[in-house]
Every structure is written in C-alpha cells, then in structure tokens.
Design goal:
Blueprint: H1 5-11, H2 16-23, H3 27-35, H4 42-52, H5 66-70, E1 72-79, E2 95-97, E3 110-114, E4 128-132, E5 146-153, E6 156-163, E7 165-167, E8 170-175, E9 178-181, E10 186-196
Parallel strand pairs: 1-3
Antiparallel strand pairs: 1-2, 3-4, 4-10, 5-6, 5-10, 7-8, 8-9
Helix pairs in contact: 2-3
Length: 202
C-alpha cells in the first residue's frame, strides 16, 4: 500500500531523522516505510499520525472496494464499569478511521469507546478498542485474549473489556471482582485486535 508520509513530513518541515526521533525508530526505518519497502502496520500508522499531527487516513492512499469501506469502523458502545443502560437499537452514527490488517480486512469490525474500564490498560481513557468476532480468528477464546463482554441484567446491559482465562470448564473473565463464565448472560461480542487513540489537538 502506498503512503503519503514523505509528502506530509516535508510539508511539516521535518527530516527523516527528526521524524524517526519523534517516533522512536531509526531513520532507515522511516525511509523504508516511506518507500514501501517496509509494511506500514497499524502501530506504525498511529505513531506516524501522532508525530505528524494528522489523521491516520491522510497518510495512506486507500484502495477502493471493501477495504476502503472497512476503514471507517462503527462505534457501537462504550466500556465502563457503571454504564448500565437500556440497549440503543439505532444504527451507530459515530465512526473512527482504522486500517484493518490484511488478514482481518474481510471480517466485521466494531469499536468501543474506553471510559473507565480495564481497557484503559490497553489504550487509555478516551481511546477505543477495535474488535472482530472470535469465530473469525479461532473457534473459541484462548487464555490471555482481550475480549469485549456484553453483560445483561433485565432490560439493562453494559460492555466491559476483560482478559480471558481458559480451563477445562470453559472461558472465564473477572468482572467487578468476581470470576464469571463467558456465556449468554456475559456474552463475548468480540476479540480485541487493535486500539485507537485520537490525536489531541490544542
């Protein structure tokens, strides 16, 4: 995939060495990524975007078709310990720009805003976790997978992020200090495959 990193870097008046210093890589790595000799991964994309103070989508020339549409991920909920609420059945209107890895591009992606959940360990408050269905990757969760869990009590529900523990009985997560089984009441809606932290301007 081609990219616009060198163009935006030059617009910012930065050398490859200065950009490399800001990102924490060598100048040769910057040169190889700019020239397409090294893959622009999701992690590098976010780091370049922060260093160049631009949106991630500005750095890539996205192809048309399914991958282009998949780059805007719908935000379908928030992860917060006390955010019990009646489910919102309306279609999500907020999206965030995420470039899926090639092996996951054909899967359904969903984003969840991080408020005060364990997901803050992954991305920080105000960031987002990106999920795909577990079945798109493997038949069941593995020990150590980060999962988004939808819990329900009566008409109320909430989303939480928790790390899976797996034994002979099945998959378990810790919610509110209690070990609970991943089941219909605490449903695994997706496995976390990426994080997104918006640029903070001003």
């Amino acid at each position: 995939m081609s990219n616009n990193i060198s163009i935006i870097r030059e617009q910012r008046g930065l050398s490859q060495s200065e950009l490399a210093r800001r990102i924490g890589v060598t100048p040769s790595t910057v040169s190889r990524i700019e020239g397409g000799a090294r893959k622009l991964t999701q992690d590098y994309l976010m780091r370049f975007a922060r260093a160049l103070n631009c949106a991630p989508g500005e750095l890539v020339d996205q192809p048309t078709g399914n991958l282009d549409r998949a780059a805007l991920i719908p935000v379908v909920g928030m992860c917060a310990r006390n955010a019990w609420r009646v489910p919102d059945l309306a279609e999500p209107t907020e999206t965030i720009p995420v470039i899926p890895s090639q092996d996951l591009a054909q899967l359904d992606h969903a984003a969840y805003e991080v408020v005060d959940d364990h997901a803050a360990e992954l991305v920080g408050e105000g960031g987002y976790v990106i999920t795909v269905p577990v079945t798109g990757i493997r038949t069941k969760p593995l020990h150590g997978d980060w999962l988004v869990i939808r819990s329900r009590e009566g008409k109320m529900e909430r989303y939480s992020v928790a790390k899976a523990r797996v034994d002979q009985r099945g998959a378990w997560v810790t919610l509110d200090g209690d070990d609970v089984e991943v089941n219909m009441d605490n449903w695994n809606v997706g496995i976390v495959v990426a994080t997104y932290l918006p640029l903070r301007r001003g």
